[in-house]
Amino acid sequence: METESEPYVRLATLRQLHKVVADLNTARSLADTLQTVADGVVSGLGYELACVNLVRPDGDLVVAAFAGSAAAEALMTGRVGPRDAWDRRLTMGESWGELRFIPHTEGWVLIEDDVPQWHTEGPEPRFEDEWHPADRLYAPMFTSGGGRELLGVISVDRPRNGRRPGPWGQEALQMYASQAAIAISNARLRANMQRALVRLEREQQALRASEESFRQAFEYAPSGMAIAEMGGDQHGRLLRANDALCRLLGRPASAMRRYSFADLVHPEDIGTLLRTSAEGGRAELRLGRRDNSYVWVSLRNSVVADAADGPRFLLTHVEDIEDRKRHELALAHRASHDALTGLPNSAELRARLSARLCDRAPGGRDGGADTGYGQEPGSPFSAEGFDFGPAGTAYDHHVHVVAPDDEVDDGTKGLAVLFCDLDGFKSINDRFGHQTGDAVLVEVAHRLTTGVREGDTVARLGGDEFVVLADGLGTADASDLAVRLRNAIVLPIRVDGRAVRVGASFGISWASCGMSVEEVLQSADQRMYMEKRSRSKVHRRAG
């Protein structure tokens, strides 16, 4: 069972992974890229040692970068391992997706082969998944496209937690190796293009040959490339687009010349494009396809300089990152949502509440005058548009969240927090089993979600407890909502041909700036408990 802290660990790991992947594309040379790849494994993936073995033109692999040990780096860098020995290693051991793990029980036969390796003596493992000093884990890097030629191998050692990586760690390392391969290929491509540009400037007598070299590198590049105008009335207009970019966007080259990237970018990403520096600028954004869909790309600019007139053209490299973005979104969703019901989990609920609350109470000594009463009914519940300065200082555009009066409905609208606890759920688990109980929880989640407005939040706090966040409600509105949800829950639920029933107790509280998230949830929980006791007394008297 997943612990409460694991979503936070996953989110932290995902943020760190995002950072080291982004760093791969900031290196200016192939050597810097290789070292950045090795450093990223140590700083972002939790290993103490990392080695990047790069395939040479003759097929052998050379140790091109090392991270984690200065002594090992001095001894290993530049050493070469034969290709046949590497091929043997990449077919041994256990296949973890693209990864290859060779446990120490099998790896002892490799100690005397010609592949450069750094081996640290250590004790035998004390438990099943403990990392042994002689264990080996390799992450092959392949070129993109149909050929999938071996570009190199990342070898890692000594996980900081002392354990063999689980599914989450394996997936992160495999994803990182894939992005590292793209970064290394791009670094090679940029180096080739930079050399071509130098030749264009310095070798006037070989101008035709240099132009042909550039044309081939541009046209046959595995990822999208475009040349745009700089300056003048047509600034940014695309002059040329290679086949890879045309295929990516589903647009013919003749049509591409009618656009600039500003015409193709998703409306929500136009600000990202405008903030991208022309010289060496990089951005991740969405570009429009011909079928009106959008694809996530990594866009990087370089200036093609003219010796006489200065900068004239913008060379833009476009890399398809749709799969990576989809994978990141899926990972983020898994970390912030309940696996059974698909609802936001406890961590996500607290994050959404925290995004709305500043630590200055409205109208208090710290808060100043109120600036409003929250969003209008039906507006999306979102953290966007609420920024906070140092030490919780709210910026002028922050709208304080206030709590309506529970006794008198004076028209004040606030952020209602409805704490829901199911009545009789334990007996269903005891009588019919946890599978039936899980089906009941899924159906209750569906009924709660159906019963609220678009933009309201329904979260599973844990067990049979749910929380609803509904913005822009008055006191009477919140009470009516609780009644409607309770009436929806008590209807029979059919599971495997039988009808079961659960009840529901609701406690209504109000979020307000100046309160902590825990105070808000605790208040709603207490009111739910008071309602449950009150209903129990009425039931006993009626009996």
Strand numbers in spatial order across the main sheet: 3-2-1-7-6-5-4
Shape descriptor reads globular
> Per DSSP, what share of the residues sits in E-state strands of 2 or more residues?
15-25%
What oligomeric state do the depicted chains represent? single chain
End-to-end C-alpha gap:
41 Å
Instruction: Supply the number of helical segments.
Output: 17
Structural class: alpha+beta
Low-confidence stretches: 365-396
How many E-type strands? Answer: 18
Structural Rg: 30 Å
Q: Indicate the percent of residues in helices.
A: 25-40%
Question: What's a quick, concise take on this entry?
Answer:
The protein has 543 residues and is of the alpha+beta class. It is built from 17 helices and 18 strands. Helix 2 (30-44) packs antiparallel against helix 6 (167-202), helix 6 (167-202) packs antiparallel against helix 7 (207-219) and helix 15 packs antiparallel against helix 16 (475-489).
